[in-house]
Amino acid sequence: MKEDLTKLRGINGLVRMPESASPETGSVHGTYLAVRLLDTRFSELANEQTLDELELVLREPETNLITQLKALVALKRSGSSSWVSYGPVIERGKTALPTDVTIANLSGYIDLVEVLVQLEPNAPLARLAAFEADPGVDDLLSGALMALSNSMYFSNSEEVRSMFPAVQSALPQLVSSPNGNGMNYFRALTAMTNASRSGLGSNDFDKAAEGLRTLRGCKEFPSLYRLEAGKESPCSLSVSAAMIAVPGAYDFGVN
């Protein structure tokens, strides 16, 4: 894993996305995804240029909040002690958290809280209001899968794990094969361990992991995952980072 991510370090010290149109320059988002994959080992990938670039982003007042928070997580995981001097960025993140979450602000809330809790574990979590989700309607299916995948980020997490009964009933079929489900296949994989009414068992998890492994590896990066079955399909850092939550997706003792 570290070897593949080292290949993705751009000329500016940040990690680039494999599918990026700018193959030489890394981004804060790509670097944050590398942090998610390497966790405490990210310090082995970061160099002085990486730290300088992250601090430059944090000192730029016009940088949006999510990008600054991602840069701060990367700076923290790099082993630099300077991250503690950016407390105001964390406070801005806490202030931006809503009290209640609906289908309308669900995606933005998840984007914010996922990053924030890595800097402030006691950040106040919001309550998710239940919504109807039809597994035959992509947008509603995506929202339900996103909520289930991230149930730990809601103050009513136990309730969330029992929401969306129609979507939960469809999970065994959604995770059975990577063919034809698009992004909702990956969302279903990350949702399955948090869906208390899905009926999925250990055999289903094993089969899902086998199916996912058919998407592992691409031309340059054998440890990452790609979106499509063909080996020529580019790997996706976003999908690879999301798959950390899937049982059997990685063996970190090997990679």
Task: Give the SSE layout.
Elements: H1 2-7, H2 28-38, H3 48-59, H4 65-77, H5 87-96, E1 100-101, H6 106-116, E2 127-128, H7 138-149, H8 157-160, H9 165-174, H10 183-191, H11 202-213, H12 237-242
Parallel strand pairs: 1-2
Helix pairs in contact: 2-4, 3-4, 4-5, 4-6, 7-10
Write a structural description.
It contains twelve helices and two strands, in the order H-H-H-H-H-E-H-E-H-H-H-H-H-H. The chain has a two-stranded parallel sheet. It has helices at residues 2-7, 28-38, 48-59, 65-77, 87-96, 106-116, 138-149, 157-160, 165-174, 183-191, 202-213, 237-242; strands at 100-101, 127-128. It has 255 residues and is mainly alpha-helical. The model has no long low-confidence stretch (mean pLDDT 93).
The whole-angstrom Rg is 18 Å
Instruction: Tell me the strand percentage band.
Output: under 5%
Number of helices: 12
**How much helix is in the residues?**
40-55%
Key descriptive features of the protein:
single chain, 255 residues, mainly alpha, two-stranded parallel ribbon, 45% helix, globular
Summarize the structure.
The chain is 45% helix and 2% strand.
